[in-house]
Design brief:
Layout: E1 6-13, H1 18-27, E2 32-35, E3 52-53, H2 58-62, H3 69-80, H4 86-104, E4 113-115, E5 133-135, E6 139-140, H5 141-144, H6 155-160, E7 167-168, H7 170-183, E8 188-191, E9 194-202, E10 205-213, E11 216-228, H8 237-244, H9 260-267, E12 272-273, E13 278-285, E14 291-293, E15 301-303, H10 317-330, E16 338-343, H11 344-350, H12 361-367, E17 370-373, H13 376-383, H14 387-403, H15 415-419, E18 455-467, E19 470-471, E20 478-480, E21 486-492, H16 510-526
Parallel strand pairs: 1-2, 1-11, 2-8, 11-21
Antiparallel strand pairs: 3-5, 4-5, 6-7, 9-10, 10-11, 12-19, 13-14, 13-18, 15-16, 16-18, 17-18, 20-21
């Protein structure tokens, strides 16, 4: 039974990146409702570093980074190589820097800062080793007061009970700031534990949403528009198996991202695109049996079921994740799972998992997430790969280590790789300067020989930080029908929409940057703005 409906100007479904769009709407005097499926806000954004790939934006200029929109446009055209997305790319580039300017005028957002993360294809035309990623400033928990309890916890806290302390950064800081800014407009309403069940359509226009809240069916009316910003379908087994032949249990996306908004859009005639795609990442399987996003490997090698290397293990994570999936599907050789092989020297230098919430080695070994052997032959038997092949692979790699050049996969040669020369652990603040490290006798810190027993193997599987296929949108974030016409009153952003970057990941902060940029564009269209 549907209870009485409330009326708003704008309804935003989802509270990750869409929360910024909700703030933009509410700050313009629009009565704005945010509908959130769970009991906390933030979605997958709360797990993230909250990087925003916003070329030409003010934080880059303040940092002295020479960048302009035309260079970024050249870069996107080259790496995405899809003319059908050029309009989306242009809209994204225009929106990003303007949105940052607007947010920085609100004291809750303060000033974003540049983080020196190279573009993921920095050697391509228009790419830059300096990067175009900006981050929100850290946030003191006390500033939010009781509201902080509404913000989704970080992944290390949710899974392993890590204590973040009195200051949070990255996604938690961005979401906390956006929540406060949204509520303090006086025009924002937040409805938690309310799951989207469908869209209300009258005379061909989307005019509201139907949802389930505390076991009851509810209906909310939107006089100006509905923005779907509820993440992807990474946690929906049926959709993942149908479109990707993966099941979703290895995802690092928020647990409630089961494609509700995607299905709702499709039910009213929306077109879709890229449903076979995800923001794939390598996942390091931990003692709890589940993988965690593995940003890059500084030592050791990854081997497939044939005991052979198959990739630059420090390659940007989306590229490495895609390579695991592609090779498993096309070569006839097992790549899911693959194995990270390293030795005691590597373990002593870098540890294993996900600092600062890394369990002791004994726990890894006891759980079976880490295998240990005195010889490579014994290790090969433990991970079911040919011993002679593993021995050959390690000897070849050790030769590259002594020479300082990875002749097969060129590890350590790109700006992204070289950034990992300097990483010690996992910085709590993504903007902090990395401390340089080196190993005497070896010219490339990313190429250390595997020759110091005992030897170890951990398991790598394809994980993701969300799917990237969804509803087709135009340059104003309007949801499109298969014939290219817009569905009146309906908008989408973030992983609910098909990515403007197509099948590639141009730079750190593209997913969240897209969520914020197209949410912003949606609101501008709703209010009839002509200044972008």
């Amino acid at each position: 039974m549907t209870i009485s409906e409330d009326t708003y100007d704008v309804i935003v479904v989802g509270s990750g990146g869409g929360l910024v769009g909700a703030y933009v709407a509410a700050s313009r005097g629009l009565r704005t409702l945010v509908v959130e499926k769970t009991d906390v806000v933030g979605g997958t954004v709360a797990y993230s570093g909250a990087g925003l790939w916003f070329p030409g934006s003010a934080p880059l200029e303040r940092a002295g980074v020479e960048d302009d929109i035309e260079n970024a446009r050249t870069y996107l055209r080259d790496v995405v190589a899809d003319t059908s997305r050029e309009g989306l790319q242009d809209a994204y580039l225009r929106a990003g820097r303007q949105l940052i300017d607007e947010l920085e005028r609100n004291p809750w957002f303060q000033s974003f800062v540049h983080g020196p993360v190279p573009d993921y294809y920095s050697w391509r035309p228009g790419g830059t080793p300096t990067g175009r990623t900006v981050f929100p400033p850290p946030l003191e928990v006390a500033e939010l007061g009781e509201r902080f309890g509404l913000v989704r916890r970080s992944l290390p806290t949710e899974r392993w009970g890590f204590d973040e302390g009195p200051v949070v950064s990255g996604g938690r800081a961005l979401i906390g700031r956006a929540l406060a800014a949204f509520l303090e407009t006086g025009n924002g309403t937040l409805r938690l534990n309310t799951a989207l069940d469908g869209l209300v359509v009258e005379d061909g226009r989307v005019v509201g949403v139907e949802a389930v809240s505390e076991g009851e069916r509810v209906r909310f009316r939107a006089e100006r528009g509905v923005l779907l910003a509820a993440g992807g379908f990474e946690r929906d087994r049926e959709l993942r198996e149908r479109h990707q032949r993966l099941t979703g249990e290895w995802s690092n996306g928020a647990p409630a991202n089961t494609g509700d908004a995607l299905r709702a859009g499709m039910a009213v005639g929306a077109a879709t695109d890229l449903l076979d795609e995800a923001w794939f990442v390598p996942g390091l399987v931990r003692p709890d049996g589940l993988p965690v996003f593995h940003t890059g490997t500084r030592g050791g090698i990854w081997v497939n079921g044939a005991g052979e290397r198959f990739v630059n293990e420090t390659r940007p994570y989306d590229q490495a994740g895609h390579e695991i999936v592609r090779l498993h599907a096309t070569t006839g050789v097992r790549h899911i799972p693959c194995h990270w092989v390293f030795d005691q020297r590597q373990l002593d230098r870098d540890g294993i998992g996900f600092p600062p919430a890394e369990p002791p080695v004994a726990e890894w070994l006891a759980s079976g997430a880490l295998r240990k052997a005195d010889t490579l032959g014994e290790l090969a038997a433990l991970i079911d790969v040919p011993a002679d092949a593993l021995d050959h692979t390690v000897k070849e790699f050790n030769g590259y280590a002594h020479a300082g050049t990875d002749e097969r996969f060129h590890r350590g040669e790109t700006p992204w790789d070289r950034m990992f020369h300097h990483i010690v652990g996992f910085p709590a603040d993504p903007r902090q300067n990395f401390v340089a490290t080196s190993v005497p006798g070896f010219p490339n810190p990313l190429l250390l020989p595997i020759d110091t027993p005992p030897f170890y193997a951990a398991t790598i599987v394809p994980s993701d930080i969300g799917t990237k296929g969804g509803l087709r949108i135009d340059e104003r974030a309007r949801v499109l029908r298969p014939d290219g016409g817009a569905i009146e009153g309906l908008y989408a952003t973030g992983n609910t929409a098909a990515a403007m970057s197509g099948r590639v990941y141009p730079g750190a902060g593209t997913p969240i940057g897209s969520s914020l940029a197209f949410g912003y564009l949606a609101v501008l269209d709703i209010v009839g703005a002509t200044d972008l």
